[in-house]
Amino acid sequence: MGILCDDVLSDEKSIAEFVCKICCQLSENPVVTSCSHVFCSSCLDEWFQRKRTCPCCNATLQSGQVSDLKTGNPLAWRILGRVQMRCPLHVQGCKWVGDYGEVQAHLTNSETHLAAPMGESSPSSATATQTSGKAQADLLKEQGNQRFEARAWNDAIKLYTKAILLAPDEASYYGNRAAAHMMLADYPQCVQDCEAAIARRPAFTKAHNRLAKALCEMGQFEKAVHHLRAAFAANPSDALKTELDKYQNVLDWLTEGKAAYDGGDFMLACNFFVNVLRVTDAVTAQLWLARAELGLGRCDQVLRRTREIVKADMNNTKALSVRGRALYLTGDYDQAVKHLNQALRLDPDEKEAQQPLKRIKRVRDTAAAAKDAAFKREFEQALTLYTEAIDDSDAPKHSPLTAKLYSERAKAALRLKQFELCLRDCGVALYAQDDHMDAWLCKASALHALGRHDEALRDMSELAQLYHNDEKVMAAYNKAQFEVRKTKRTNYYEVLDISKISTENEIKVAYKNKALEYHPDKQVDKTDAEKKEAEEKFKVLGEVLEILTDPMRRKLYDEGYDKEAIEERVKAANRAAREHKKDGCCGGGCS
């Protein structure tokens, strides 16, 4: 809601560009769009709840295309600031006149509205003074309401405070100021104002409900329910009953959630705490949800949740402790220790920091020693140390730390050729974190070592589809393809009944003997099936001779390539040689 145009003294033309097209008043807390239209900040926020377009030209507006007029168009802001205004309380005789930019300072800081009417001190004069003061207070309250609607909470509080000074017995002023404190998340002040309002009007339902909400936001759920129960007993009403039932449910959910958490049923606990947070944003409830999420290994969610809490209150030891545990379960030992130490500096008796700190330091040191042993190729020692770290970690089965420790132990087991242990550890790591790349690659190596190349190819094919830009994944995928094709190729040495170190002459002699055995002329007396089998073997003999008597082809075959891959590489080598000659490098001019 904007400032009434009736209070503008400047020419209408001078304010035409600054009139909000939504409320049709002079823009308050003005913002400007990328299409150069000016609106009240609160009016445009409400408009955006329905559609994200400019109310004037219907242009689509993104989040970065709206800015304060002061920063978005400084020249326009200076022009608006010079618009002449009169005090919104001019009906009470205030003669103030000034610039647009000075109106709020006048309303919230000026003493002119507090001056008592001049005249003799008499009963009738005192009554007139009280009446005038109440009228001025009501106008200040209206101005405060306008600032409240414009989301200028601090300005609203100043105006409500001035109204209270003029009429300290009016409960509604305290109630309105409590609402502004609520919007600023200043819950202790909100409670004080609600209590002041109730003291002046015991049946003030809104104040009772607002007090209960503020208590809940402060984490005092039982106190909130107790207050509403007493208020309802004194003055029964549907509004109080509704709030009482709501916060009683919140208290029940919190109690049930804690019981589920203590019983180790973290999923059920999460469900209860989520229900609580649908009603209140209390930090206490958020931290209980974070603890339950930690039990499920959802470290990323906990870190996001606790980051905002710690950012708002750096001295919240509970938030620091929960965040420290979350950092530990991601494997960030140093930051975890830092947060827990900070919590203990603030409160040496903080059990949530004391208990895990020693364990975290032990696991950190043991894991570091294991990593050092693996680097020195002392894999037996590394395996033992990783086992010790896993047993001591007390990490949830779905946490990143579980995936990390089991994956590292799997690598040590792979080096020791304990392939079955390696596969089991990789399975645990992938159950904890299904996108843990080191575990996938280690598992593929173990499967190859056990000759289970088809399984490795199946796993790597799925990964290659998801991470086709990852060099390690694609290299593992290509290796799996290679190993599968290698197992399916014909063993040329077995065909000729010779060893891999046979000379070219030995290969030719063996070929001649086999060729005579399977030559079509030798199959005259055989059955049709036997003739067909001999014909296939005779064809293979020609392929064997071609590969094994060519040094380059034989070398590629010994490296594991099948016939198709060998021919591809031979052609590539020939193309490269031709291109080399075209460049003149092999001509007579080379020296």
CATH architecture of one domain: Alpha Horseshoe
Instruction: Please estimate the helix content.
Output: 55-70%
Described by its quaternary structure, the protein is single chain
Strand content: under 5%
Q: What separation lies between the terminal Cα atoms?
A: 88 Å
Q: Overall 3D geometry?
A: elongated
Given the helix and strand composition, which structural class is it? mainly alpha
What's the overall average pLDDT, rounded? Answer: 86
What does this protein structure show overall?
- The chain has 591 residues and is an all-alpha fold.
- Among the domains are: 1-86, Zinc/RING finger domain, C3HC4 (zinc finger) (Herpes Virus-1, 2-Layer Sandwich); 395-488, Serine Threonine Protein Phosphatase 5, Tetratricopeptide repeat, CATH 1.25.40.10; 502-582, Orthogonal Bundle (Helix Hairpins).
- The chain is 68% helix and 3% strand.
- It contains 29 helices and 5 strands.
- The strands form 2 sheets. It has a 3-stranded antiparallel beta sheet.
- Strand 1 and strand 2 (38-40) form a beta hairpin.
- Helix 28 packs across helix 29.
- The longest helix has 27 residues, at 123-149.
Question: Can I get a quick summary?
Answer:
This protein has 591 residues and is mostly helical. It has 29 helices and five strands. Among the domains are: 86 residues, 2-Layer Sandwich (Herpes Virus-1); 94 residues, Tetratricopeptide repeat domain (Serine Threonine Protein Phosphatase 5, Tetratricopeptide repeat); 81 residues, Helix Hairpins (Orthogonal Bundle).
